[in-house]
Amino acid sequence: MAEADGLTCLAAANALAVPAVLGLSQSWLVLEWFEAQGRYQAGDLGAGLAQLHRTLGPSFGYSRANFIGALAQPNQPSANWAEFWRDQRLWPQVELAAQAGRMPNQRQHQCQRLADQLDRLLAHQPQPSLVHGDLWAGNVITTNAGQPGLIDPAVSYSDRETDIAFASLFGGFGSQFLPAYQAMWPLPSEYHERQPLYQLYWLLVHLTLFGEQYGRQIDQILNYYNG
After folding, report:
1. How far apart, in Å, are the Cα atoms of 63 and each of 15, 78, 88, 145, 214?
2. What pLDDT, in 10s, does the model give residues 134-177?
3. Phi and psi (nearest 5°) for 9?
4. Does residue 55 have a pLDDT over 80?
5. Beta-ladder partners of 24
6. The pLDDT value given to residue 97
7. How far apart are CA 197 and CA 126, in angstroms?
8. CA torsion sign, 67 to 147 to 32 to 63?
9. CB of 49 within 8 A of CB of 182?
10. Any idea which residues carry the catalytic annotation?
């Protein structure tokens, strides 16, 4: 249900191709089939993503909770971006990692220190943009017309920089992706200072789902911001 809702939301933005939802139940989802023609152009994805991000919401969050991978993603609306990123993104993942036995005391202490700084670190007051929320290479497909299409979203209205940060974490989008995005809607000059802080969210997700191989990157980010 949450995935179908997210796809419908993305399609309504009319920015990038999204397969139509043809049917669903509690246990299955039927989508429009795209017979890929070649490989989409990274520049088309970047430009389309910038257009998607122009879709604005009344506040941060979303009308329902959804999922990031197999994990729950809360979306309780908030007018305060730092509060939303702390309470609806980072801290729920810290708690899930702790329940999975992957949050030793020192790491959890460092997470708390970072959480206490978020009002300062995220004081830039972004607009609540519609974001895909799980933007890695496996969730971008090629349509019948050779254009980029989006699947498997974890939508919310968030800082648009979060989509760019995750897209940059594991790569796979091609060298023209970011320049095309920047040409349509330039990122703030201080974005790169926030990028690791946003990437921390998906690294915590990966820590819970896949294990300690992501722990070193997490600890490096925590040490960077905590000094």
Report:
1. 20, 11, 13, 32, 31
2. 999 999 999 999 999 999 999 999 999 999 999 999 988 999 99
3. -65, -45
4. yes
5. 29
6. 98
7. 15
8. positive
9. no
10. 134
